[in-house]
Design goal:
The chain is of the alpha/beta class. It has two domains: 197 residues, inorganic pyrophosphatase (n-terminal core) (Alpha-Beta Complex); 121 residues, Diaminopimelate Epimerase, Chain A, domain 1 (Roll). It is built from twelve helices and twelve strands. It has a six-stranded parallel beta sheet with strand order 3-2-1-4-5-6, with helices on one face. Strands 7-8-9-10-12-11 form a six-stranded mixed beta sheet, with helices on both faces. α5 packs antiparallel against α6. The chain starts with a helix and ends with a helix.
Length: 325
């Protein structure tokens, strides 16, 4: 691919790199940036990772996670190249980094979201890819760079997370072949990676899930379901936004539900939204109505409304989309 060749040329021609990803980073975001970090270091490059939000505990088994620095640490570093991974827009890396982390030469944008913007000087955007980790794997392979055990573990984690443990429709035959190759290289047990990401759950998260499910509501036809997480619930259970991950999938599993919505109350009174679809409704387009984005079946956004208004607005929008099916 021309975009691969252009980015590999940039890598060969420059020495200093910064890497960043979207706010509230997930397994694909963290796995992708750490894999790229490891490759660039092996090539003898100067490279640092700056994220707006901290690495969640469940990803702290990944090699070199501790090298990820906070946004303010980027002030004294002017890289030649900034590589942004898994972020559908420049603003998604956070207000501070999007304005202050400025490279001297170019921005490289690597993403797989169908709503991705071409904000980079060089863009590798492949919506058909299962994950950004898959794109980076193919980029590395196309250059014949060596993938070592640490890099394989990072890439596999990204692949596993964004395919829902290979349950989603984006996990095609190529994805499974890549996963198998990474397991061979990395010499790790897939079930151990699964347990690290999904089964090390705090008591607080279980209590938060219980409180959240008590807020469950559905439209009369059962096609739209939503739950609410308030600031009081976070305080009562001593939990954070990281603990909400996966809650929306619980209600998506209800057999009649076509659109599932999880609304989190933000400290400023506005709302953070997670959306899931069983396939008939494109929730990436739904999220885009509110300047969000993501995938056809899994997306998110932030709405500058209190949760009661946000829920009402989202439900009405989802109803309109279901009517057009």
């Amino acid at each position: 691919m021309d975009s691969f060749r252009s980015v590999l040329t940039i890598i060969e021609q420059h020495q200093s790199f910064a890497i960043s990803t979207h706010v509230n980073p997930d397994g694909d975001a963290i796995g992708s940036e750490l894999a790229l970090f490891l490759i660039l270091k092996k090539l003898g490059k100067t490279v640092r990772i700056f994220n707006t939000d901290v690495v969640p505990d469940k990803y702290q088994f990944l090699p070199k996670w501790e090298t990820i620095e906070n946004a303010e640490a980027s002030v004294a570093f002017r890289p030649e190249i900034l590589v942004v991974v898994d972020a559908s827009s420049r603003e998604r890396i956070g207000p501070f980094l999007s304005k202050c982390l400025i490279p001297t030469h170019a921005v490289v944008n690597i993403d797989h979201h169908q709503t991705a913007e071409e904000f980079g000087d060089y863009n590798i955007i492949i919506p058909s890819a299962s994950s950004t980790a898959e794109i980076i794997y193919n980029l590395i392979e196309s250059a014949n760079y060596e993938i070592d055990e640490a890099c394989a573990l990072c890439l596999y984690t990204g692949l596993m997370f964004d395919t829902g443990c290979f349950r989603y429709s984006n996990a095609d035959a190529d994805t499974h072949r890549i996963a198998a190759n990474l397991i061979d290289i990395g010499n790790f047990a897939p079930d151990e990676i699964y347990r690290n990401v999904y089964e090390h759950v705090s008591l607080g998260k279980i209590r938060l899930l219980g409180q959240t499910l008590r807020t469950l509501e559905l439209t009369p036809d059962g096609k739209i379901a939503w739950v609410l997480v308030t600031q009081k619930m976070f305080k009562d259970t001593k939990t954070t936004f990281d603990d909400v991950e996966g809650f929306v999938n619980q209600i998506q599993a209800i057999e009649s539900v076509e659109v599932a919505i999880c609304v989190c109350e933000l400290p400023d009174g506005n709302s953070k939204i997670s959306l899931r679809s069983e396939g008939s409704v494109d929730v990436a387009k739904l999220a885009a109505e509110f300047d969000g984005g993501g995938h056809e079946r899994a997306s998110g956004c932030r709405i500058n409304l209190p949760y009661t208004s946000a829920i009402a607005t989202l439900v009405e929008s989802a109803k309109r989309r279901i009517k057009t099916i």
